[in-house]
Design goal:
By secondary structure, the protein is mainly alpha-helical. It has helices at residues 26-43, 46-54, 58-71, 79-82, 85-88, 94-121, 124-159, 169-194, and strands at residues 13-15, 21-23, 162-163, 166-167.
């Protein structure tokens, strides 16, 4: 998979899905991190921009912004195919790095806004409890998806399963990329179905 520290003394080693090491030098890594930070800083202002431009209530503006954020992880569907150096050359590893960086920035923007939705809808006295319950659910979900991913990778490697042109462990990786790509849109649809219109919740 991509990421991880190098055991050969290099500060950053990125591996393609064929386990071919690619070195991301310090300057390049810094530029990637700086770009990621700037994108997140710009996107987090999007709900405010929508409110100022359209006059929508905070919940509607935040949901519109979160829908936009949910579209960017779809790019993760192309991360693994574009990382094929036999097709796109020795610099092909830059494609998944950039795509995963954009998807990560969208995730950060989504996370910041999903916590703010609680403040838009619930009284101040309940915010900590609701955020805590959400954090616990997120932690359990993270545990389950990581455990399931590991089991999937082992199964794919052992059986040499084939999925959309990938075989073995790369097939398992691509399945996880597909899940991650659509998770935000699914989450947005569930939120919209449960709360179609803005209505502050009053606690007696």
């Amino acid at each position: 998979m991509y990421g991880g520290s190098s055991s050969s003394g290099h500060p950053h080693t990125f591996r393609t899905f064929t386990d071919s090491p690619q070195i991301l030098h310090g300057t390049d890594a810094y530029l990637c991190a700086l770009c990621h930070h700037d994108v997140v800083r710009l996107w987090r202002k999007l709900p405010t921009i929508i409110i100022n431009k359209t006059g929508k209530n905070p919940y509607a503006a935040r949901m519109q912004a979160m829908f936009i954020f949910a579209l960017f992880p779809l790019l993760a569907l192309f991360a693994q195919p574009l990382g094929n150096k036999e097709v796109f050359g020795e610099q092909a590893y830059w494609f998944p790095i950039i795509i995963i960086g954009i998807a990560g920035a969208a995730h950060q923007s989504w996370s910041a806004n999903i916590y703010s939705v609680v403040g838009d809808m619930f009284p101040k006295s309940t915010i900590a409890t609701i955020v805590g319950i959400g954090g616990m659910a997120g932690g359990i979900s993270s545990f389950l998806i990581n455990m399931s991913s590991g089991l999937l990778f082992d199964y794919a490697d052992k059986t040499q399963m084939v999925f959309l042109g990938f075989q073995g462990k790369p097939a398992g990786y691509f399945i996880i990329f597909c899940v991650c790509a659509v998770s935000y849109l699914i989450g947005w649809c569930i939120m919209k179905a449960l709360v179609p219109k803005y209505k502050p919740i009053i606690v007696d």
